[in-house]
Amino acid sequence: MLILKTISDARAWRDSVGEEQKTIGFVPTMGALHPGHISLIRKANRENDLVACSIFVNPIQFNNREDLEKYPRTLDADIRHLEEVACDVLFAPTASEMYPGQDIINDKYNFGHLDKVLEGKFRPGHFNGVAVVVRKLFEIIQPHRAYFGMKDYQQLKIVEELVKYHKMPVEIIACPTLREKDGLAMSSRNVRLTHHERSIAPVIHRVLLEIKEKIGHLTPKGAQIWGANQLNKYAEIQVEYLQIVGADDLLPIETWDEKKSVVVLVAAYLGKVRLIDNMIIK
Ligand code: PAF
Q1: Number of domains in the chain
Q2: Is residue 182 domain-resident?
Q3: Dihedrals φ, ψ of 53, to 5°?
Q4: To test the ligand 1 pocket, which listed residue (53, 55, 68, 134) has its Cβ within 8 A of the most ligand atoms?
Q5: How far is ligand 1, taken at its centre, from the CA of residue 222, in Å?
Q6: What is the largest CA-CA distance in the chain?
Q7: pTM of this prediction?
Q8: 200 and 143 part of one domain
Q9: Which domain holds residue 217?
Q10: Residues with Cβ < 8 Å from 201, sequence gap 6 or more?
């Protein structure tokens, strides 16, 4: 696997691929790779001639310093995992390589209400930071397809919007969330849970499944309240939001009859660790 640390090396690699007319599948990550990431790499591998992965803990998408400092960094193990699944290229720049000046960091995106609700409400500036880095990574790697996990559902919608708005020639591929045997959504943050917290964590997925069963029995609002109450019964859990919204527009729904696909999204602190999950329920 080719490991590239600078933008100019990555551009040189991209130019050489361009001459060979090969397709590139791209998996942007912040490292601490788990089987969820690896499944994205495998899919990208099946669907493209070459696979590139990036590992960059993007400081401007963290609105909490402790979260940034505690974010797991496991580059050596990540490289081993990527080599095992035959990833062709790893782009792993430093923060000063990606952001040498302030200009790009000051870029402001407007995603309408998409980046103001849910995660956007509790993590101001987060999606702007994601948009800045994803756009820059897309410009450097120029992939034909880019793979995003549905666990970060709102991020997926934002990236789709970013690409549509800027007419970027990249196809966004949404990939299902990978779960542990007990249902917990795989996440790099899970390693920060204590043994006790880890044993409680699957309740988040269980409650999402149970909310699906409430369709037709409770109103969407009633189901939201019911779900949040189930989670808040645990002293260790603090729900930030649990919302049932349209799967495309992320707008609240009043009744189940609306002819649109529906997603329930949740963010909750389990001890000091913030976990998110979601499920398309209709
Ligand atoms: O989902 C992530 O890991 C990050 O938000 C991403 C897309 C790599 C941007 O930093």
Answers
A1: 2
A2: no
A3: -125, 145
A4: 134
A5: 33
A6: 59
A7: 0.96
A8: no
A9: 188-277
A10: 184, 190, 193, 270, 275
